[in-house]
Structures are given as C-alpha cells and as structure tokens.
C-alpha cells in the first residue's frame, strides 16, 4: 500500500512539474495559471469574509502575498502574438500601459493590505471589497466574455 501511495504521489508531482514547465514556455498557459492562483487566493479570502472559514492570519497573508507577487509580473505574460486561444481581449495590446497600471494597482492594494494585515473577519471583508473592485474593473475591459 505504501508503494502504491508513493508511486501515485510521485506521478502527481511529475505531472505538476511538467505542467509548470509547459506553462513557463507558453505565455497563455502561464497567465492562466497565475489567474487561477489569484482566483484561489481571492476565493480563500472570500470564504473568510463570508464566515465559511475561520479567520486565519497565515491564510490571509499567503493569499495577499500571492496576489501581490503574481500581479506585479502578470502584464509580462502578454507578449505580442499571444492573443490567440486566450480569454484576453485585444484591448490589452492596444492599451498595455493602462493594463499594466491596473495590474500594479491590484498589487499595490494587496501590499497595502499586507502592511496593515486584516486582523479579523471584518478586516478581510474590507480587503475583499478593495481587491474585488480592482478585479472587476480589469475584467470588464480586458477579459473576453465567453
């Protein structure tokens, strides 16, 4: 039984590493991976804000750190020619400076929240409102509706 679990775990790790390697070479896959990480982080904060999960300072810090880190390099994942097979709107490449500014605003807000670190559920609720407003603004302009 231990051998089987070890084999399954090893296979899962290899597949994860292979997916990460592919994402590194493919800007569309890389940015989709980053958005999944940001989405999961916002989801974790949302669960705390709604009271579905108890307040956990470590989880809040990890989520805000992920959002900050990913959004600082997110615009770099949009090189010319990577518009195909993507939910990214062509407006990104037409308005790259604005797109970068919106990404940096989200990163900056996450950094500000990290510096003041929400201390309870109410603080996380306010954080989610701040972050969510940034997400919505960018998605309305720069994400294709499917």
From TrEMBL:
One of its GO terms (molecular function) is heme binding. The lineage of its organism: Bacteria, Pseudomonadati, Pseudomonadota, Alphaproteobacteria, Hyphomicrobiales. Keywords: Electron transport, Heme, Iron, Metal-binding, Signal, Transport. InterPro entries: Cyt_c/b562, Cyt_c_II, Cyt_c_prime, Cyt_c_prime_subgr. Binds 1 heme group per subunit. This is Cytochrome c556. One of its GO terms (cellular component) is periplasmic space. Heme c binds at residues 135, 138-139.
């Amino acid at each position: 039984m231990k051998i089987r679990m070890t084999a399954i775990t090893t296979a899962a790790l290899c597949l994860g590493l292979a997916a990460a390697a592919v994402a590194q070479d493919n800007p569309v896959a890389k940015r989709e991976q980053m958005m999944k990480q940001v989405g999961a982080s916002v989801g974790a904060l949302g669960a705390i804000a709604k009271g579905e999960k108890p307040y956990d300072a470590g989880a809040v810090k990890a989520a805000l750190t992920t959002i900050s880190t990913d959004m600082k390099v997110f615009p770099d994942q949009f090189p010319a020619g990577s518009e195909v097979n993507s939910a990214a709107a062509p407006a990104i490449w037409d308005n790259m400076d604005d797109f970068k500014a919106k990404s940096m605003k989200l990163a900056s807000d996450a950094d500000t929240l990290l510096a003041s670190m929400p201390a309870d559920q109410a603080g996380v609720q306010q954080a989610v409102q701040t972050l969510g407003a940034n997400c919505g603004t960018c998605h309305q302009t720069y994400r294709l509706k499917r």
